[in-house]
Write a structure and sequence with these properties.
seven-stranded antiparallel sheet, serine-type endopeptidase activity, serine protease, protease
Length: 558
């Protein structure tokens, strides 16, 4: 489960968060924080590992009223999913979810992983072990409690700087069966680094699992258990058809307490957290650590999401959970099952969203599509796509923004020729691009080093910036090719529109009005042309540390 800290939340590690359940008397509060004066702490994404096994929990984690036969469950046949028998439920709240839960529960599993971790030697004489950097370890060390020494510890116990010892550690998560042959879906972070993976069914039966493949980009992993009879399994539903306000059920193994169900509604859709391919369903159904990898069901018994992350001030559910949409997961699972890895399409362009200012500067009626900022060597360059093009259609489907284009390209088969329509100089142009493979392209990522402030030279004031033409000496200082051209920002007025749009000293303006600029006269000419066309801004292409970005700068005259 990924953990999104809320305003008052500490950056707790998994062990520290788990100890909050075990030491209420010692801690006396759900979370310890440090005040930030005159500002609200920002919300940021952070990984929330699966729940750790807590000493004293029952050996079996099945629910008390479940049939604890210890036998592997068997499906009536290998083609019918357990959710197929769920009757359609109306849009109003049902009196009970018991029928759906009873139908799909046999396909939901607990996952226990075992891995080897390093911990300081000599910890046995002190208190419980905390990972380095945990606020609890700092608290206990500051008070000189044995087992939590610092450099000046009066107890002389070994601390985190002491020699490390290898220990085996268990972690808990959730998953669900998607085929009668024993294919299981969970989160990648549930099994990441595990030496052993064990699956527990609701009946109490346990089976070892092997890893088929993982996709860290969507945090999905596929496992397999060997069975000699068909297993109960569930089907994926169409997450695109789900609507905000629909009822959903989250099943899993929260905090290692066993099979559990919680109900809620879809609070929002198409949430993006930190990943390139993020398409999360937000729900207020209770999701906690240990629910990682568990299914989110609609009322037809179909999986429409994989529970992955929560937003929380203390590690527990506050009704803001995130499940990766099933329409993303289905494609990943199919590829992992068939190839053991993902094989995503690759177009080979750098893109940015079309802002209202950019749309106005290009004379576009609507601010949609994905603007191409750079075209490195790859499929797009070979097909003739150029920087400054706005991609408006991919494979016959309209492109709304950069996220939409990234998802469509990733879902397209590698090696397939697709039609890509771009807006160029105000007119549509259709090109045919043969897609490459994203994973191979990512293996060759690179970035230009940080540039230095340009040296002094003859400059002119324009649009609130002091600009100087590129010279071989400036190019060398900025670690650019000797033949680089453009206008270098030497100084910038903090009250200017350029400063408000994020330009800074050392940036290089290489295009204006989608035409190259090598001298100040070029930029002035583009500004005059835009004003004559009645536009309020001019589109400039800026390079910073080798990365391009289009910015629409205001040219309105006072």
């Amino acid at each position: 489960m990924r953990f999104l800290p809320l305003t008052t939340r500490l950056s707790l590690t998994a062990s520290a968060a788990a100890l909050m359940l075990a030491l209420p008397a010692v801690l006396g509060a759900p979370a310890l924080g440090q005040a930030v004066p005159d500002a609200q702490p920002e919300v940021q994404a952070q990984a929330l590992p699966p729940a750790e096994a807590v000493p004293g929990t029952p050996e079996t984690t099945t629910t008390p009223d479940a049939a604890n036969s210890g036998e592997v469950p068997q499906a009536p046949d290998a083609t019918t999913a357990v959710g197929d028998h769920v009757a359609a439920v109306g849009s109003i709240m049902p009196q009970s979810f018991s029928g759906i839960v009873a139908e799909v529960s046999p396909a939901v599993v607990n996952i226990t992983t075992t891995s080897v971790v390093s911990r300081p030697a000599g910890r046995q004489r002190g208190g419980p072990a905390f990972p380095p950097g945990s606020p609890f370890s700092d608290l206990f060390r500051d008070f000189g409690i044995p087992g939590f020494p610092g450099p000046e510890s009066p107890f002389g116990d070994p601390g985190f700087g002491a020699p490390q010892m290898q220990q085996r550690s268990n972690a808990l998560g959730s998953g669900f069966v998607v085929s009668a042959e024993g294919l299981i879906v969970t989160n990648n972070h549930v099994i990441d680094g595990a030496d052993e993976i064990e699956i527990e069914f609701q009946s109490g039966a346990r089976l070892p699992a092997t890893l088929i493949g993982t996709d860290p980009s969507t945090d999905i992993a596929v496992l397999k258990v060997q069975v000699d009879k068909p297993l109960p399994f569930v089907r994926f539903g169409d997450s695109d058809r789900a609507q905000v306000g629909d009822w959903v059920l989250a099943l899993g193994n929260p905090l290692g307490q066993g099979f559990s169900a919680s109900a809620g509604i879809i609070s929002a859709k198409s949430r993006a957290l930190t990943g390139t391919y993020d398409d999360f369903i937000q729900t207020d159904a209770a999701i906690n650590r240990g629910n990682s990898g568990g299914p989110l069901f609609n009322l037809q018994g179909e999986v429409i999401g994989v529970n992955t992350a929560i937003l929380s001030p203390n590690g527990g559910s506050i009704g803001i959970g995130f499940s990766m949409a099933s329409n993303v997961v289905k494609g990943v699972v199919d590829q992992l099952e068939n190839f053991g890895e993902t094989r995503r399409g690759w177009l080979g362009v750098k893109i940015q969203d079309v802002s209202p200012e950019i749309a106005e500067s290009l004379g576009m009626e609507v601010e949609s599509g994905a603007m191409v900022t750079d075209v490195p060597a790859g499929p797009a360059l070979e097909a003739g796509i150029q920087a400054g093009d706005v991609i408006t259609s991919f494979a016959g489907n309209p492109v709304t923004d950069t996220r939409d284009l990234v998802r469509r390209v990733a879902d397209a088969p590698v090696g397939e020729a697709v039609d890509v329509t771009v807006l160029r100089s105000g007119a549509p142009v259709t090109l045919q691009v043969t897609l490459g493979r994203r994973e191979l392209a990512d293996a060759d990522g690179s970035g230009a080093p940080q540039g230095e402030q340009p040296s002094e030279g003859a400059s002119s004031e324009l649009l609130g910036m002091s600009l100087v033409p590129m010279t071989p000496e400036l190019a060398a200082r900025l670690q650019l090719p000797e033949t680089a051209q453009g206008l270098v920002v030497q100084d910038i007025d903090a009250t200017s529109d350029a400063s408000a749009k994020g330009l800074r000293i050392g940036d290089v303006i290489v295009e204006a009005g989608q035409q190259p600029v090598a001298a100040l006269a070029d930029l002035r000419a583009r500004i005059d042309e835009a004003r004559e066309a009645g536009r309020q801004s001019v589109l400039v292409l800026v390079r910073r540390e080798g990365e391009p970005r289009f910015v629409a700068l205001s040219i309105a005259e006072d």
